[in-house]
Amino acid sequence: MDLFQAMSVYVKVVEAGNMTAAARECGLSTTMVGNHLRALEQRLGVRLLNRTTRRQRLTEFGTEYYQRCLAVLGLVADSEHLAEQAQGTPSGTLRITAPVTFGTERLAPALSEFRQRCPGVKVELNLANQRFDLTDGTFDVAIRLGNLDTNALIARPLQDYTLTICAAPQYLEHHGTPQVPEDLAQHNCLAFAFPAGDEWSSTATQWPLHGPEGDVLIPVSGSLLANTSSGLHRAARGGLGIVMMPDALVEEDLRQGRLVAVLQDYQLPLRAMHLLYAQDRYRLPKLRSFVEFALEKWGRP
């Protein structure tokens, strides 16, 4: 058992209120969180939590142990930061979280270049569309889409996250190319099932465009509704229908002719994208180097 990780997981369980929420914040499965708790209790020989199917309650010892864990984890983090600053050169583990599509298509391929600049830095990359709390030290830096919901972090603007409506050449040969947004009603439009509450959740059934006549909201429907961009991407390349996809995912296909952009005279919705980190961590060479690298690659002109 990794005692340090088990203590970190225990702190998350206490603060999140249940194992399911803690698992999401830690990027682990609920089963793995439960395994860490059981291993910790077995090591200590004392129960930390009284758990039922509906609720959990700290034992008296669990409450005291939680405070000790906070102190120990804080000392470990401070020690690591002190060592990194003393070295002066980027080193240690840099923990990054980023949206799935951007992280897969843009960030992950760029890490080789970052490692050439900073060979002493090891990267732990968590790709998820959920928003993690950066104030607890689990992650050093995040790339985040959409509106910002915190003033406690430094936010550096990156290039906007943009979309393109496109289809495979074989689909357009068989079904024709839409000339105006209203033509989409006659086409098989493949849609992404965004989570409820997402800023783009309505695009599963309506595509917003802006053209000479102003804003239009076009109802769309089709034979596929998917919860992953990669699934829609593959289906579109296979000729199933028309998609509205992130440029990060389709730009190479557009260059190679595997997909063809349509309705290019109309503007599509976009999302702001930022690089987020805690101000007190920027003094760490590993984080400062990555921030500079990311702004060079994807910062706004």
From TrEMBL:
The yes or no answer to whether the keyword Disulfide bond is present is no
Residue ranges occupied by any HTH lysR-type domain in the UniProt entry: 1-59
InterPro entries cross-referenced by the UniProt entry:
LysR-type_TF_proteobact-type (IPR058163), LysR_HTH_N (IPR000847), LysR_subst-bd (IPR005119), WH-like_DNA-bd_sf (IPR036388), WH_DNA-bd_sf (IPR036390)
Q: Which UniProt keywords apply?
A: DNA-binding, Transcription, Transcription regulation
Is Transcription regulation among this UniProt entry's keywords?
yes
Its transmembrane ranges are none
Instruction: Write down the SUPFAM superfamilies for this protein, in alphabetical order.
Output: Periplasmic binding protein-like II, Winged helix' DNA-binding domain
Q: Which family does it belong to?
A: Belongs to the LysR transcriptional regulatory family.
Q: What is this protein called?
A: LysR family transcriptional regulator
The source organism is Pseudomonas piscis
